[in-house]
Amino acid sequence: xxxxxxIGTALAIIVLMAAGYMLIGGVxxxxxxxxxxxxxxxxxxxxxxxxxxxxxxxxxxASDNWxxxxxxxxxxxxxENITKMDVIVRTTGVNSSVYYVPYLFAxxxxxxxxxxxxxxxxxxxxxxxxNPGMLDPGEYVNIIIHNEDGFPxxxxxxxxxxxxxxxxxxxxxxx
Length: 175
Known about the structure:
Elements: H1 2-49, E1 53-61, E2 66-73, E3 86-91, E4 98-101, E5 112-121, E6 139-147, E7 155-161, E8 167-173
Antiparallel strand pairs: 1-2, 2-6, 3-4, 3-7, 5-6, 7-8
C-alpha cells in the first residue's frame, strides 16, 4: 500500500515537469514572436525617418483635363514600387470634392487616374540609371493626373503617399 503512493507521487511530479516545460516553451516562443514583430515595426519607422518626398514643377492643362508635377525623393530610402503610391486630390472652391486617384495599369479603362511619365535623376543627363523603375534618392518621377470629366474647380490640394506611409502635399492651380 505504501508503494502505490510513491508511484502516484512520481507520476504527479512527471506531469508537473511536462507542464512546466510546455509553459516555458510557450513563453519562449511568444517572446521570440513579439521581439521579431517589434524589430519589424522599428525597421519600418526607421525607413520612414529616412524618407523625404517633395513636390515641384507643377504644370496643368485645364482644357485637356490634366495636371502634372515632379515628385522628388529627397531622402535616403528608395521607393521600390511607385505604382502603389496613393494619390489624393481635393479640389477647393464652391464645388469642392475629394478624389482617390488610382494608378492606371496597362489594359485598364478609367475616367480618373494617374500615370508616371518618366523617372529621372535630379542631375541632368543621368536618367533612371540606378535601379530602373524604382525612385532612388536624388531622382524624381513625373506624375500626371488625368480626369476625363474635368476638375470642378481650378484649384486643388494634392497629397502623394509612398507605400511606407511618408507623404508630400502641395496646392495646384489648374489653368
